[in-house]
Design brief:
The chain is mainly α. It is rod-shaped, with a radius of gyration of 34 Å. The protein has a single domain, classed as Orthogonal Bundle (Helix Hairpins), CATH 1.10.287. Helix 1 runs antiparallel to helix 2. 93% of the residues lie in helices and 0% in strands. The longest helix has 84 residues. It has 2 helices and no strands.
Length: 147
C-alpha cells in the first residue's frame, strides 16, 4: 500500500508556478542591476568631466570649449534623468515580482505542510493497521495452542 498525496498535481503546478515566478524575478533583478550600472557609469562620467573642466578652467580655457563642455554636461544630465527613471521603473518591477514570488512560495509551503500532515496520518494509520494485524495473529496463535 503506497502513499499517494491527493493534492500532488496541485502541488506540482504550484511548484512550477513558483519556479516561473523565480525566473521572472531574477530577470527583473538583472534588468534593475543593468539600469543601475548604466546610471552609475553616466554619473561617474559627469563627475569626471566636471573635474576635468575645473582643472582646465584653472589653467585657462577658451569660451568655445567651455560651451562645448557645458552642452556635454547638459546632455549627460538628460541621460542621467532617463536612467534614473529606468532604475525606478526597474526597482518597482522587481519589487512587484518579488511580492509575487513570495506569494507563490507561501502557496507551495502550504501544500507541502498539508502533504507532511497527510503523510503523518498515513503512517499512523499503517501503524494502527499493523498493530491490529499483530493482535489478530497473536489471538490466532493463542487459539491454535489452546486446541
Amino acid at each position: 500500500m503506497g502513499y499517494q498525496f491527493k493534492f500532488d498535481k496541485i502541488l506540482h503546478i504550484k511548484a512550477k508556478e513558483k519556479d516561473e515566478a523565480l525566473s521572472v524575478y531574477n530577470d527583473a533583478v538583472k534588468k534593475f542591476e543593468e539600469a543601475a550600472e548604466k546610471l552609475y557609469e553616466f554619473m561617474k562620467k559627469k563627475e569626471d568631466l566636471e573635474t576635468y573642466q575645473s582643472d582646465k578652467l584653472v589653467a585657462g580655457l577658451p569660451v568655445m570649449e567651455i560651451r562645448h563642455y557645458q552642452q556635454f554636461i547638459v546632455n549627460i544630465d538628460k541621460t542621467i534623468e532617463h536612467y534614473q527613471k529606468m532604475v525606478m521603473n526597474a526597482r518597482n518591477r522587481m519589487t512587484f515580482f518579488q511580492e509575487k514570488l513570495m506569494e507563490k512560495n507561501v502557496e507551495v509551503k502550504k501544500f507541502e505542510k498539508i502533504k507532511e500532515k497527510d503523510f503523518q496520518i498515513f503512517k499512523d494509520d499503517i501503524k494502527l493497521l499493523e498493530g491490529k494485524q499483530m493482535d489478530d495473529i497473536s489471538i490466532q496463535q493463542y487459539m491454535n495452542r489452546e486446541s
